[in-house]
Amino acid sequence: MLGQQDRRPDPMARAATGLRGRPGARRALAGLAGVMLLAAVGVLGYPLYTNLYQDRVQGGLESQLSSPELEQAYRAGNVGEGDSLTRLMIPSIGVDVVVVEGTSASALRAGAGHYPESPLPCEMGNVAIAGHRTTYGRPFHNLDLLKPGDKIILETPVGTCTYSINKDPFVVAPNNFSVLERTPNGSLTLTTCHPKNSAAQRLIVQADLEGPAASA
């Protein structure tokens, strides 16, 4: 019996023999392998590309943030989409990123963007900022690690203010915009995708302004 089993054709050998007689099938498999290889390279390379792109963009945004022209535009409430608006720092998780005005796809390539319908940073009301979690520098990658009492600092062309996180990060549906609604006091809302590498939900962090709000 053992000798008979040994003489049975190996499945891989049979497949190889069949392919030798079918050049079209060989070409199809080779093409499929190439497509799969390109897809794998794309999946692995895309985050690296976006991070390098964001790093280059951030260099220009830092220079713009300290320019007299931006200060003038900021005071007039006339900061253009994609222009520097504020530096956002979260010491507890090592975040330091320049936030631009706007949340369009092109604006968010900077890493984080300010919802234009929300108040300017440090002003009264609910200041709202969206940020990438796994690409374009992933500034909000570890937002889920924040806890009540952690500080968020916003540095604008006209001043600096600090917010204190008031509750644990929480998750909402992507079409739940209630977290962006106006508030009577100074507050800050950060939004990002959840879970990581997915846009199925939104992770939310909310904080309260410490001290008086900036003049509008």
Would you kindly provide a written description of the structure presented here, covering whatever features stand out?
The structure is a single chain. The protein is of the alpha+beta class. It is 31% helix and 26% strand. The chain has an 8-stranded mixed β-barrel. A hairpin with a 6-residue loop joins β8 and β9 (201-210). It is globular and about 80 Å long. 32% of the residues are buried.
In a few lines, what is going on in this structure?
The protein has helices at residues 2-6, 11-20, 23-65, 68-75; strands at 84-90, 95-101, 112-114, 126-131, 151-156, 159-165, 170-172, 187-194, 201-210.
Q: What share of residues is helical?
A: 25-40%
Low-pLDDT residue spans: 1-5, 37-43
Please give the CATH class.
Answer: Mainly Beta
- Main pleated sheet: 8 strands, mixed, barrel
User: What is the name of the CATH superfamily?
Assistant: Sortase
How much strand content do the residues show?
Answer: 25-35%
Which sequence of SSEs, written as H and E, runs from N to C?
HHHHEEEEEEEEE
Which architecture name does CATH use? Beta Barrel
| Number of continuous helical runs | 4
The global form is globular
CATH topology: Sortase, Chain: A
The tally of domains stands at 1
β-strand number = 9
User: Could you give the distance between the termini?
Assistant: 91 Å
Strand order of the largest sheet: 1-2-3-4-8-9-6-5
- Average the pLDDT over all residues and give the rounded result: 86
Give the C-alpha Rg: 25 Å
Structural class: alpha+beta
